[in-house]
Hints:
Layout (H helix, E strand, L loop, with lengths): L19 H4 L2 H11 L2 E4 L8 E4 L2 H9 L4 E2 L6 H4 L17 H14 L2 H22 L5 E2 H18 L6 H12 L8 H24 L5 H6 L2 E2 L2 E2 L2 H32 L1 H8 L5 H12 L4 E6 L3 E3 L2 E3 L4 E5 H4 L34 H18 E6 L4 E2 L8 E3 L1 E6 L6
Parallel strand pairs: 2-10
Antiparallel strand pairs: 1-2, 3-7, 4-14, 5-6, 7-10, 8-9, 11-14, 12-13
Helix pairs in contact: 6-7, 6-15, 7-8, 7-11, 8-9, 8-11, 9-11, 11-12, 11-13, 11-15, 13-15
Amino acid sequence: MTPGVLELELSAIDLADPGTFVRFDMDEVWRRFRTEAPVHLHPETGKGRSFWVLSRHADVRSFYQDDERFGSHQGNMLASLHKPNGDPAAGMMLALTDGPRHAAMRSILVKAFSPRSREFIVNRLQARVDVLVRAAIGRGQVDFARDVAERVSMSTICNLLGFPASDHDMLLGLSREALSSDDIDQTDEQAWTARNELLMYCQDAAERSRREPGDDLVSAMATCEIEGRPMTVDELVVNCYGLILAGDQTSRLAMVGSLVALDRFPAQWELLRSPATSLATAVDEVLRWTTPVMHVGRTARVDTEIGGRTIRAGDLVTAWNTSANRDADVFADPEVFDLTRAPNPHLTFGYGPHFCFGAYLGRAEVGAVLGTLRRTVERVEPCGEPKPLYSTFLRGYGSLPVELIPKRGVTS
C-alpha cells in the first residue's frame, strides 16, 4: 500500500517521478512544502542530480523575473535539465534564451502576431469551437479531450504557423507523445521518436518558408534578422517545434480540466451559464485551477539566497506553478474553484521576461470553449473517470468521457 502524504518525509517525495503526480494528493503535498520547506533541496534520483524546489507564490514570481541570477541556457524543465549536456535547443529556442537575444526574438514574434492577424485567428477559432461543440452535443458519449479540446488547440496553433489542415491530426498525435503520455507504459524511445518526427516536419516547414514566405509565424521567423543576422535553419526548426508544443498543451489541458472542475463544483456551472458572469474572469480561474505547466526550471548563474537557503552557481532550480497557484498567502480559499475570483494573480503563463508569448491565444481558446458551452449546453454528464497524464511537467487529463446535453432548441 502506498503511504499517505502525511506519513512521508518531504525528502522521500520524488518530484522527478511522474508516478508521484498520479499517486498522491498533490494539493496536500504542496501545502506541506510551502509550510515546512518552501525552498527545498530535492535529493539526487535515478533521473539526475539534485535540484531546488520553490513552492511559494512570492518566490516563484521573483524567480520568473530574474534572468540575471537564473538562466534558461541549459534547459527549462526537469527532463532537459537532467540531460548530461542540457537541452540541445539551448540558446536557440525562444524559451531557452535570456537577455537581449530573448527580447529580440520575442519582439519578432510579437510583431508578426499583429492585432489584424490575431483577430483573423480568433474569428476562425470561434467558428471552429462552435462546429466541434455542436457536433458533440446530443451524440451520446464523447471524449471531450480528444473530440473537442485537442482539436481546438492544435488547429489554432497550426493556423498561426501556416500548416495545412490535412496535417493537424498527425501533428496532434506527435505533440501528445512528445511531452506527456496518456499511457503509463509509453517508453522514452517512443517520446524521442515523436520529438524527432516533429523536428523533421518543422525543418521542412522552415525550408519552405525560406523559399516561399507567407503571412504566418514561421515565415516571419524565416525572413527576420536577430542581432544583425538571419535565423539559422536550426533556430527556425527548434522555435517552430517549441511553438507547436506550447500552443497545443496549455489551453487544451485547461479546457479539459475546466469540465472536471465544473463537475466537482456544480454551483460554478450554474454561475458560468449566467450572462452576468464575466467570461474573462472565469477563464483566469480555469487557468489558475488547472495550471497545466506544473513547473519551470533554470540554472543558477551565481551564488544567491532564497528564503534563507544558499543556492550555488550551477545548481538546478525549479519553480512550481501548481503550488504557487494554491498559495493561501495570495489566494483566499485557494482550493475552491471560484469563477468570480478577482483579482487573480496566477502564474500559469509565468511572469516577467519569459511571460508566455501565447497567453493571449490561450485565453482566447479557453474563453471560446466556455462561451460556446454556456450558450449551447444545458448540462455535462460524466460518463467515466478522466484519465490523468503521466508526466512531471504537464498536469491534466488525456481523456474525459462525457455527454453534452443540449439546451432546449439547440441541435447539433
